[in-house]
Design brief:
Residues 65-331 form the Fatty acid desaturase domain. By secondary structure, the protein is an all-alpha fold. 58% of the residues lie in helices and 1% in strands. It has one domain (10-347). The longest helix is centred in the middle third of the chain and has 29 residues, at 190-218. It is globular and about 70 Å long.
Length: 374
């Protein structure tokens, strides 16, 4: 695999770790009332949108009410999953010591049980980011998204798999912690697998009972139109979450790594692996909010437990660090990242690696004079 880090010395890695540790400490020391007010405000807005959507859908047999209610409910679900649930369960707001907004107590509006998600995502993915064979998020076990992954004939229809995964993304996430590869190989713990399946089943029953039974029943004779509205809102939320997450992990020349990379990996090397294995999406403040600030995927991978409202603030400094050490800072518009990601999914559905790099996210590495580390 081509490396973009051959020019870095051990002293560079140490300096990178020192700078990023200092940046993190600066933000942690500055957390306070304005940050707490931010998350409380977002939760109020999200709950207000959901209440409004449920009320409008009581008249869901009328097309304008169905459209308005469905769109509002989809926005509410996106906010809950992306900016609130994902980030609360990362521990970004644990510093407030509020038991209602804490990683140990939050259960999100999603069929994936919070505890299983926190293991597969917070621990496995964020520890082993883009390590082939360790990070199950590389292709989610069904997609070949890099030439380093072994090709199999089952990859040929993967564009279809991906489209289905997008629509039903929450179910794919729910099954993620089961480690299907171990089940296929017979190396899983059967009792542990059954316990996880029971937890998933309970969560699905809870979500279906709410969205596909309780609220449709409240709308009386408009049961079917309300049910369809709820299904559509969930599908829209799933497609949006899938798109944002894939655009943060798979576009352009995002790098993957062999497991040997972990041997003796230093803090600086871990930071650089996060930089090389992530991509940002450009946009305005409302767009960043609706992505859960995962449009700042680079900053999120560097500092997964820092409050998401701070990512836009630190992004210019992270980018400057990349320029200082001649490292790529992958970023681009949503359309560019979506196109690049889907090109990979179609290309690597076919056998054989490609020697040339995929189209890079912009801006690409610019030649700079690399400083000598202190």
């Amino acid at each position: 695999m081509t490396s973009t880090t051959d020019h870095l010395t051990p002293e560079d890695y140490e300096a990178i770790a020192t700078e990023l540790d200092a940046l993190r400490e600066e933000i942690v020391d500055d957390l306070g009332e304005r940050d707490a007010a931010y998350i409380h405000r977002i939760i109020r807005v999200q709950r207000g949108l959901e209440i409004a959507a449920r009320a409008v859908l009581l008249g869901s047999s009328l097309p304008p009410a169905w459209i308005a209610g469905t769109a509002t409910l989809a926005v509410a679900k996106i906010l809950e999953n992306m900016e609130i649930g994902h980030n609360v369960m990362h521990g970004q707001w644990d510093w407030m010591r509020d038991p209602k907004i804490h990683s140990t107590t939050w259960e999100w509006d999603n069929v994936s049980p919070a505890e299983q998600w926190k293991h597969s995502h917070n621990f496995v993915h964020h520890t082993f980011t883009n390590i082939l064979g360790k990070d199950k998020d590389v292709g989610y076990g069904i997609l070949r998204v890099t030439p380093e992954q072994e090709w199999h004939w089952a990859n040929i229809p993967q564009p279809v798999y991906n489209a289905l995964l997008a629509m039903f993304f929450e179910y794919g996430v729910a099954l993620h912690d089961l480690e299907i590869d171990k089940i296929r190989a017979g190396t899983n713990d059967p009792e542990e697998t059954r316990a996880k399946l029971r937890a998933i089943g309970r969560k699905i029953r809870r979500q279906w009972g709410k969205d596909y039974l309780a609220f449709p029943l409240l709308s009386g004779p408009q049961f079917l139109s309300t049910l369809s509205a709820n299904f559509t809102a969930n599908a829209l939320r799933n497609v949006w979450a899938h798109m944002i997450i894939f655009c943060g992990h798979f576009p352009g020349d995002i790098e993957v790594f062999e497991e040997e990379r972990l041997d003796g990996e230093t803090k600086g090397e871990w930071y650089v692996r996060q930089l090389l294995g992530s991509a940002n999406i450009t946009g305005g403040s409302l767009f960043h909010l609706m992505t859960g600030n995962l449009s700042h995927q680079i900053e999120h991978h560097l500092f997964p437990d820092l409050p998401s409202n701070r990512y836009a603030e630190i992004a210019p400094r992270v980018r400057a660090l990349c320029e200082k050490y001649d490292l790529p800072y992958h970023t681009g518009s949503l359309s560019k990242q979506v196109t690049s990601t889907w090109k990979k999914i179609f290309r690597y559905a076919l056998p054989g690696p490609r020697t040339e790099q995929s189209e890079p996210s912009e801006p690409d590495r610019a030649p700079v004079e690399r400083p000598v580390a202190a």
